[in-house]
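LOG
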Amino acid sequence: MCRPDWEVMMDPGGDPPFELDSWVNLAPFERTLGMEITEAGGGEALLTMPFTVKLAQGMGLLHGGALTSLADTAAAMAIKTVLPEGTHFATVALRTEFFSPVRGGVVSARARAVKEDDRTFRGEVSVADDSDREIARFVSTFKVAKGRG
């Protein structure tokens, strides 16, 4: 049985045990997956992530969860570029469609933030392999926390 590392866990409702260098930046989980922000501004973002064996599923393909994490993060970065620094928001719904497997290389996620109302944003993301072939499409809904934006 795995035991949690109590010294590095966050106290519920407390501050995270780390600090981001800037508002549009990657969290530890995203860095663990190898994501990089290539572009971010004006409601758009482009992120990349290399295929590594640690991100493979049982058949040796890039895991769909890793691709979905990349797309979700790209959408969040696009949204951050149009919100005031420190605004609290979260993914409340997502849908990913997969078109082709990834066996290697670097994947990229191009995201666009669409404001639907005062507290709701839609993230639209196209994920491509390094030959620029679309391998997945991602659509999500983000909500800004009441009184936190």
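LOG (cont.) second protein
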Amino acid sequence: MSDVIVNKVAQSGIVTFNLETLFPKEEVVAFDLKDYLFKGLILREKDFRMAMKEQDWSVFAGKRVAVFCSTDAIIPVWAYMLVATRLQAHATDVVQGDERTLLTLWYRDAIAKLDAEAYRDKRVVVKGCGALPVPPSAYAEISRLLMPVVKSLMYGEPCSTVPIYKPKMQRKRS
């Protein structure tokens, strides 16, 4: 009788892909236009332009900024353009939308840059339940990228996975 403990997960050949490794290194922050609206509802051009001129944009240095309006106000498109031009010299990235939108776009771009061939014929598990707010769209995007090349695609942890995709075996013709 042997007391040797065998790590079957390590021997399984499963490759773990953790989407959190793609998470932006820079801080993701919001710039809410509601703070610049008259009575919280109306964007007055003269007041808005003055507020944008007086804003300390240096606080956004090196950050990824999501520009949006959290109130149900009609915001003219030029307002987003004006904020983007002010942020350009400071922020790493500027997106019109909330933080979730920013992360969705970030992940789409980051995943598009991956080499799917590195996962050809591998059993891949996409790690879930992490500490960072990885958007669900990133899981869909990584699935779309890996599906044509992997032997199997799973979600979870190597010791406890949910099967997502496995190519159908070719039937032999007689």
